[in-house]
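[Q] Does anyone have a clean structure-token version of this?
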Amino acid sequence: MTTPDIMAPPGPGFVCGIHLATGIHTTEAYTLAQLLAYHVPPRLAHESAERIGEGMRSFADALRLGPSDEHPPHIGHRIRIRRGKPFLDYGDDTYRLCVPAASSWAHLVAAGKPVRILVLLDPLDAGATQAEIDAHVRGCFERGAMRWGTTYHV
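[A] Here you go.
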């Protein structure tokens, strides 16, 4: 029996460029907290869309996310809420990402509802409108440029 390789997450220099956004998806059957992670387009000389894609793949692998054309895997307990502030354990031994979330999102997660994490491999402008974000997420999903998984608060 073999165990899956644990991928090292990207370093804090890359991770500090990752943006997080939260939302709540509600249907008649269920309510799901969502966490979107994306990186802004290249801004510095050493950055490129390819390197950003590689970094986001490494980030997704460290979280053990699956491809968007498969059922999202359960990835263990990756969301923590302490003193009302949610953060994401992305696999680094030292660092965590603070999740900017409304109190309604944090309360939903603290109550045990699942969190769907979506990591986009293609860069997205930080100033994108809601319609542009929606179109980009759908495009990444259709192109296979998204990884996802489900987690819960500990």
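[Q] Thanks! Anything notable?
[A] The beta strands are 18-26, 31-39, 66-67, 79-82, 85-88, 97-98, 115-120, 146-151.
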